[in-house]
Amino acid sequence: MQHDWLTQDQLVLASNNAGKIAELQQIFSTLNLPIQVVPQKQFEIPDAVEDGLSFIENAILKARHAAQLSGKPALADDSGLCVPILNGAPGIYSARYAGEHGNDALNNQKLLDDLKPYRSGTPTIQGYFVCVLALVRHQDDPLPLVYQGIWQGEILEQPRGSAGFGYDPLFWLPELGKSSAELDKAEKNKISHRGQAMQLFKQSLI
Fold this sequence. Notes:
This protein has about 210 residues and is α/β, with parallel strands linked by helices. The protein has one domain: Maf protein (Alpha-Beta Complex), CATH 3.90.950.10. The protein has 5 helices and 7 strands. The chain has helices at about 20-30, 55-70, 105-120, 185-190, 195-205; strands at about 10-15, 35-40, 75-80, 125-135, 145-155, 170-175, 180. It has a 7-stranded mixed beta sheet with strand order 2-1-3-4-5-6-7, sandwiched between helices. The longest helix has 16 residues, at about 55-70. It is globular. Belongs to the HAM1 NTPase family.
């Protein structure tokens, strides 16, 4: 019964974030699922109120919201960047860290500014991306399916690269010698937090 949602005609992606949707749809295209995956925008579903205190809570809130308004199973992604030296900020507030939802330039600049006091004593500042995927079969689903990915890296002192979105230009991968924004889509999807969560999702279907 865990995957009875696959018998439905459509699965709603509970997001209006173009970057997330593009990455998720690209990964979904490799799974050959017997269900059409469509963004919630096609159902004119507005963003949910994200008033949870964790990535898991917000992912489930968004999935239930989309399932309620569409009448279909829904998959939501809640993700963000956590910096331990900032007590986990920006965390669940990553998309609106600087006060304006979805303004990547302002969010990146605020992160750089907030880290300046720590740079002299801490040459390397650790950070990690988190992605939680939550799938509900209907709005009142008592057992959402949850998949989590974590991507470790470092926070740069200035942006590098022009690909990706969000904090990708500041997220340094020392083992690759590149920022996340310098990876091509296929390379990023193999190792990113979202890619990891989607791999767990894929494995659950086997």
